[in-house]
Amino acid sequence: MSPLELITDHTIQNVVIGAALLGLISGVLGSFAVLRKQSLLGDTMSHAALPGVCIGFMIAGSREMGILLLGALTTGALAALVMLMLTRNSRLKTDAALGIALSTSFALGVVLLTHIQNQNNAAQGGLDAFLFGQAAATLRSDLWIMGGVTLVALALVIAFWKEFKLVSFDPQFAASLGMPVMWLEVLLTVMIALAVVVGLQMVGVVLMAAMIIAPAVAARQWSHRLESMVMLAAVVGVAGGVFGALLSALSRGLATGPLIILSVSSVVMVSLLLAPGRGFVWEGIRLWQGRRRLRYQQVLTTLYRLALHHDDPTFRSEQGMLDTYHGHRTRAALRQLLKRGLVEWRSAPPEEPRGAKHWVLTPRGRDEAERILDSLGRGES
Questions:
Q1: What is the rounded distance in angstroms from the CA atom of residue 33 to the CA atom of residue 164?
Q2: CATH for 265
Q3: Which of 229, 252, 277 is the last residue of a domain?
Q4: Range of the domain at 312
Q5: H or E element: which one contains 19?
Q6: How many folded domains does the chain comprise?
Q7: Spatial distance between the Cα atoms of 222 and 242, rounded to a whole number of angstroms
Q8: Within this chain, do residues 207 and 353 fall inside the same structural domain, yes or no?
Q9: What is the pLDDT of residues 191-245, one digit of tens each?
């Protein structure tokens, strides 16, 4: 397919715009879910949306998108509110309450979907597409609904930005200031349900949870402030959504929803690996540097203790003895110490075999060893 055909194709336009709207709202609202340690909330609400879709169809008698999404919003928000009630009024932990709400509501949705399919109603064709999404079926009228929902959600985030920020990081302090913490949490929960509703047509019930979580997780690796995290999550969501949609258009036969999720998840993997200060690669480098530093500090303090023991600041320590004492080769550590000017190499005494290397602390090395031992002594005390 040529670039011109991509731009002018009406179906592709609908899919790309819908994916961008989904990425935008998912990135913004998913950031609050991740910070509130409620990553499974999106999973619960997306599965809880299925009975709402079925009930909406049973009421309307057709696949009227507005009615279906309203039903999905109602049951999704209701499941989340049940979860909040269970955690506040019982001894259940959040994960247990989420599991109860998810499994019960999804089971109800499957029962209702089976009931509708057994009625042989021609209008129910394609209703099961809400399980995995059917982006190609997105109409321009659906985009107006998705755009309206996204606009409402973003307006609420802007209007209650300070309150949402405080509730996400320190709900106890927010309560002490007299903020209605419970109602703010309810509002945030309903807004995440709005994001789920936007994504049902694009990625479906099963994959929607990943769309809520993934952009926020990727953004969290690169940012230290909520403002930058939310904006970056929105960018990741939009870029992943658009790229997945275009990839699906170029690869005929590949489902759009899974490709969108894979696109966003690839950004998550890169972020987890390479994000400065938090990525696994940098963490591995820091660990390697720490072990290397610890190893040469151990060799340095050993040379210092040997010099003290023999009451000779210029005591020569043979490398083979150091290897035996530490249980590993010390050549690399000694080379590092030599490079830093903390030790120097001396030739072996006449009575010892030729070629044996002996190492002596420099005055700078003695000062450094004393500093290390002094800091260790303060740490132990």
A1: 11
A2: 1.10.3470.10
A3: 277
A4: 282-380
A5: helix 10-35
A6: 2
A7: 21
A8: no
A9: 888 888 888 878 888 788 889 999 999 999 999 899 999 999 999 999 999 999 9
Q: Are residues 14 and 109 in the same domain?
A: yes
Q: Is the pLDDT of residue 379 over 60?
A: no
| Pair of tokens at residue 22 | 């989904």
Considering the domain architecture, whether residues 289 and 146 belong to the same structural domain is answered as no
Q: What are phi and psi of 345, to 5 degrees?
A: -90, 140
Same domain, 208 and 310: no
Same domain, 245 and 132: yes
116 within 8 A of 54, measured Cβ to Cβ: yes
**With contact defined as beta carbons under 8 Å apart, do 216 and 192 qualify?**
no
Mean pLDDT of the chain, nearest integer = 85
Q: Rounded to a whole number, what is the distance in angstroms from the first to the last CA of the chain?
A: 72
Measured distance CA(344)–CA(323) in Å, rounded: 17
User: Which tokens in the block code for residue 115?
Assistant: 């009931």
Torsion sign over Cα 320, 325, 331, 337: negative
Is residue 317 within a helix (H) or strand (E), and if so which, with residue range? strand 317-318
AA identity, residue 230: V
Of 277, 301, 324, which one is at a domain's C-terminal end? 277
User: Side by side, which strands form the sheet with 358-361?
Assistant: 317-318, 358-361, 343-346
**Nearest alpha carbon to residue 74 among 93, 48, 98:** 48
What are 44's two structure tokens?
């619960």
Provide the CATH number for the domain around residue 329: 1.10.10.10
